[in-house]
TrEMBL record:
One of its GO terms (cellular component) is cytoplasm. The gene is rnhB. It comes from the Bacteria. This is Ribonuclease HII. Residues 11-204 form the RNase H type-2 domain. Manganese or magnesium. Binds 1 divalent metal ion per monomer in the absence of substrate. May bind a second metal ion after substrate binding. It comes from Desulfocurvibacter africanus subsp. africanus str. Walvis Bay.
Length: 211
């Protein structure tokens, strides 16, 4: 069970995490969650360590017991234009700005804080493996993941043939084969390896002329 945040700040601290950063298709989704002090959320953990059924059970509990929660999205054109790190921080800032209360502090999963220009002068801490260590970040990871998984199911209906509902946009063998056969859709990240076509002479530098 991830530890509670300090009692004097609990209830005003927003945990922030993302889902989908490493995918070839679909948006990056971020969530921000403010939990009250000592709230009970049995089984809460990093979303990557939970089964789909466990995440589905936790999602409504988090939403009903949180003081505030919100989701932010950054779509593939923004990812291609800005790069995935900047687009992720943008999605995080959108989640924070959508909260119905202003948190006293942000705890951000990873090693990067959100630029002040995107969220104002809220104190922040970046916490590596925060989704495993801090409950409000774990809660954010669950909301980001469940929201994104549902969204990819809807995108499967709009862009059939890629298998979005199954692999959620990750670079599985099935997904890569669909890209070969169908080419990229509007939901693909055109700057990502595996989506953008390799140049015809990509392997020429591996050998010397005449050998």
């Amino acid at each position: 069970m991830p530890p509670l945040v300090p009692a004097d700040k609990a209830g005003r601290v927003a945990g922030v995490d993302e889902a989908g950063r490493g995918c070839l298709a679909g948006p990056v989704v971020a969530a921000a969650v403010v939990l009250p002090a000592y709230v009970k959320l049995p089984g809460l953990a990093d979303s990557k360590l939970l089964s789909p059924a466990e995440r589905a059970r936790l999602e409504p509990l988090i939403k009903t017991r949180a003081l505030a929660w919100a989701v932010g999205v950054s779509w593939p054109p923004e990812i291609d234009e800005r790069n995935v790190l900047r687009a992720t921080l943008l999605a995080m800032s959108r989640a924070v700005r959508a909260l119905k209360l202003s948190p006293d502090e942000l705890l951000v999963d990873g090693n990067q804080c959100i630029p002040e220009g995107l969220v104002g002068f809220i104190p922040q801490r970046a916490i590596v493996d925060g989704d495993r260590l801090v409950r409000c970040i774990s809660a954010a990871s669950v909301l980001a993941k469940t929201f994104r998984d549902r969204l990819m199911g809807k995108l499967e209906r709009l862009y059939p043939g890629y298998g979005f509902a199954r692999h959620k946009g990750y670079g599985t063998r099935e997904h890569l084969q669909a890209l070969v056969e169908l080419g990229p859709s509007r939901m693909h990240r055109l700057t990502f390896r595996g989506v953008k076509p390799e140049p015809a002479n990509a392997g020429e530098h591996l050998c010397l002329p005449g050998l």
